[in-house]
């Protein structure tokens, strides 16, 4: 069975640039035959702020909120992820962190790669994500794509510099390989 990898759009802001980045990732991934790639738009799930008294890891995928249950089903159906993550104020975006925290075992022992963007390429957000995903024994891929707001975006929007396509190919190669090894 082919690995299923979700490309998670990690911003819910109006006018977000992450959607263009995720579409670029998805277009490249769609050319591949070694995995099935799906766009997962966090904004469409409208995950509420985590307020449940039940710790998500102990909820056994039984959540109080229908939006969290839908988010759970979408994430649980996947074998690995590409987080398209902005860097906000030198850190991870709050909406994606909340959505991550709202689940438990759905993330466990799966793979994750990072395509980040920000003034300095979003690298601080990715370093924080690496610490966060370790809690669920996720395997994070070392290679990443770090897009700079001043080098990969222009007046017309997202316009990655030439070398980014190769970086993305390396990330996807590594992610698919690791995902397949974990699924054996």
Radius of gyration: 16 Å
Specify the structural class.
alpha/beta
Shape: globular
Overall strand count: 7
Question: How many structural domains are formed by the residues?
Answer: 1
Strand order of the largest sheet: 2-1-3-4-5
Contiguous low-pLDDT stretches (5 residues minimum) are none
CATH architectural arrangement = 3-Layer(aba) Sandwich
The CATH topology label is Rossmann fold
Beta-strand residue fraction: 15-25%
Distance between the termini: 11 Å
Tally of DSSP helical segments:
6
Helix content: 25-40%
CATH superfamily annotation: Flavodoxin domain
Q: Look at the structure and give the CATH class.
A: Alpha Beta
The main sheet comes to: 5 strands, parallel
Q: What is the oligomeric state here?
A: single chain
Verbal overview:
- The protein has helices spanning 18-29, 42-45, 66-76, 94-101, 123-133, 164-183; strands spanning 4-9, 36-41, 80-86, 111-118, 139-148, 153-154, 157-158.
- It has 184 residues and is an alpha/beta fold.
- A 5-stranded parallel beta sheet has the order 2-1-3-4-5, with helices on both faces. Strands 6-7 form a two-stranded antiparallel ribbon.
- Helix 4 links the parallel strand 3 and strand 4.
- It is globular.
Which labels suit this protein?
184 residues, Rossmann fold, five-stranded parallel β-sheet, single chain
């Amino acid at each position: 069975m082919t690995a299923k990898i979700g490309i998670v759009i990690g911003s819910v802001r109006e006018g977000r640039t992450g959607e263009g980045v995720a579409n670029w990732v998805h277009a490249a991934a769609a050319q591949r035959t070694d995995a099935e790639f799906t766009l997962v738009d966090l904004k469409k799930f409208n995950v509420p702020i985590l307020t449940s008294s039940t710790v998500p890891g102990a909820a056994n995928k039984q959540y109080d909120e229908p939006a969290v249950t839908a988010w759970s089903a979408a994430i649980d159906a996947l074998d690995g992820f590409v987080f398209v993550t902005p860097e906000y104020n030198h850190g991870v975006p709050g909406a994606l962190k909340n959505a991550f925290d709202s689940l438990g075992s759905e993330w466990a022992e799966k793979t994750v790669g990072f395509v980040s963007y920000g003034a300095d390429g979003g690298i601080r957000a990715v370093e924080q994500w690496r610490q966060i995903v370790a809690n669920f024994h996720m395997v994070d891929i070392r290679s990443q794509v770090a897009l700079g707001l001043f080098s990969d975006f222009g007046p017309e929007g997202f316009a990655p510099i030439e070398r980014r396509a190769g970086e993305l190919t390396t990330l996807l190669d590594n992610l698919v390989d690791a995902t397949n090894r974990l699924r054996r």
